[in-house]
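Dear colleagues,

For the upcoming journal club I promised to circulate an example of a predicted protein-ligand complex. I picked one with 5'-deoxyadenosine because it came up in last month's discussion. The inputs are reproduced below in full, followed by the predicted structure.
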Amino acid sequence: MYDDNITLLGVKKDIDETKQGEVLYFDQPTDGLKKFYIESYGCAMNFSDSEIVASILGGAGYGPTRDMESADLILVNTCSIREKAEENIRQRLSIFNKLKRQKPEVLIGVLGCMAERLKAKLLEQEKLVDIVVGPDAYRDLPNLLAKADEGDKGINVLLSREETYADISPLRLDSNGVIAYISIMRGCDNMCSFCVVPYTRGRERSRDAYSIVAEAKDLFDRGFREVTLLGQNVDSYKWSSPDDTEHVNFAQLLERVALVHPDLRIRFSTSHPKDITNDVLHTIAKYENICDYIHLPVQSGNSRILSLMNRTYDREWYMERVKAINEIIPDCAISADIITGFCTETEEEHQDTLSIIKWSRFSMSYMFYYSERPGTPAAKKLQDDVPEEIKKRRLQEVVDCQRLVSLEHNLADVGKVFKVLVEGDSKKSDQDFKGRNSQNKMINFPKVDGVKPGDYVMVEVTVANAGTLKGKVVN
Ligand code: 5AD
Ligand code: SF4
């Protein structure tokens, strides 16, 4: 889902990463309104934030457009997770700048993690940018835009300990009307040594459980059939009522959302191996509509590297969590994030990563080579001493290994029948539908009469390769 040296195997997530970022829009009359155009990069949280931004802009008299040329306001919601992600965005900014030279009245805004990381420096470096807004300051957009209209550059990168945008009803951009994200928390307190997120998204805070359940209900009533609960570390979700009489943890939140309706599927991302509890696993097992799929980033299979990464678990702990998942939810698919070539990683330690992929039988992984981020603990304390060619070669080995494991995982599905939620036409043909099973695997199958997006159908898998499954509807 990230936009640089990532390789997607198994099943692609909802939002495909593209060089250009995803252009988000929604179908609504925009006559008489000023128009905004927004591109989003990086993680699902950024896509979800863009829907909050769209809602705030709606209140300020802006409607969305997919056409950059006709926009009064061009926004780019940015990602800083790796250097490549930032390079991509700079290239996009140079294209927006060209447009601004022809049409000086258009406003250009940088949102998200890069805005937060670079702050006022961004206004110095990118002369044609008008506003810079960090992830916790989107409510200030109307005010910053009004000032920018008068020619004043605007910046708000204040991070908050409270902001969760709980009361803002996101405008579902580019939606298929079937699946949606719900943000349940913001920020991260984990301090993995390689990661810039705690600095760009601030301290962890959980959103009011009632507002989450209300959003899920509203989506279901509007015809949506799947929600993904989003947070950097969902297992540490913890909300207390203002009078401190009610406390909700992640397992309890999952249960509350599952009870909205048995036909509403629940997914969640991202879990942390140190925090995922057996309570969460039992809740998943108890409710058919909580999907049997856990994204559980391992990062490395070697305990010394995990310790340098400050992941606060070791190889044995991770393996124990995988065992618990397999015991409590026998059909659960597990996927991972993996980094190759972290500081001081040896060949032997890299082999431990290959072996944990095979041992855990990940259905798919998001794989990256290490990219040092300024200001992170690793950048300050560790030497980025694995040469780039070695990082890339190890990445290729990880990709090849995962491809084989994904192939085996998918081949084991041939002949099985799965309940699939129809999402829409398949990428390749309008004669076929696509939809995912509980394990988050996308299956393409020929359309049958009477079935439409948002319906559940039983599909038998007939063909599999490392990346895709094909099947046919059965009764
Ligand atoms: N270099 C490479 N990959 C990184 N990730 C986070 N920071 C870095 C970095 N500096 C990866 C991790 C994380 C995913 C979202 O991105 O695998 O889980
Ligand atoms: Fe970054 Fe670690 Fe937090 Fe994930 S859990 S956002 S990798 S610091």
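Two points we might discuss: The longest helix spans residues 388-411. Residues 1-19 have pLDDT under 50 and may be disordered.

See you all on Thursday,
B. R.
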